[in-house]
Each structure stands twice: as structure tokens, then as C-alpha cells.
Amino acid sequence: MAITTKYCQKELEEYGGCVASHPASWQEKCLDLKLKVAQCTSSHPVIRKIRTDCASEFSAFESCLRENQTSAEACQPRLNRFLACVETVDLSGTANAAPQPT
After folding, report:
1. pLDDT digits (tens, 9 = 90+) for 18-47
2. Residues 6+ apart with CB under 8 A from 74
3. DSSP state, 29?
4. DSSP E strand boundaries for 36-82
5. Would the CA dihedral through 45, 47, 52, 54 be positive or negative?
6. Closest CA to 71 of 26, 41, 29, 38
7. How many helices (H) and strands (E) does the chain have?
8. Quick check: 11 and 37 in contact, CB under 8 A?
9. d(Cα 8, Cα 6) in Å, to the nearest integer?
């Protein structure tokens, strides 16, 4: 998460603000901002490595969010599993790499 925040802070803040402002309809109201976050995160090699190595955990978290649109806190256990996976990713060789154009 710190890596995502480092490279995509503006996008994450806008998306987070939208989600907080629309607790019952964030999935629909914030879709464009979610796509901006996805575009930002997909362009950096460190983030791409994390998303590849922890794809199943991230997918489970996203599925939970879709299933619990009015109660995102229900997905905390899946978020925790994703974050635990992130801690195990070997980022040697990617930390200083430049983002790839999208």
C-alpha cells in the first residue's frame, strides 16, 4: 500500500474521498476514479510485480467489495490477506525501475 500511495497518491485520495462520500453507491459513483487508480498502478513495475504475485488475494478482496458494496468493512480479512502477501513479494530488481508507458 505504501508503494501504491507513493506513486499514485493523488488518484488514491480522490478515489477514497469518493468512496467515503457515497457509502451506498460508491461502486457506481466512483468507477471512473477507480479506473484512474488502476491505470496509475498498472504503469509501475513494482506495483505490477505485487499485483502478479498476489493476484489471487487481490481478486478475493475485489470480489468481496463487489459483494458487500454497502459494507466495505466486511472485507477487512481479505484486505489483510492481500497485505500479508504483499509483504512476501521479492522486489529486488524492481525498486529502481522506471514506470512503463501505458
Report:
1. 988 988 888 899 999 999 988 887 787 888
2. 64, 68
3. H
4. none
5. positive
6. 26
7. 6, 0
8. yes
9. 6
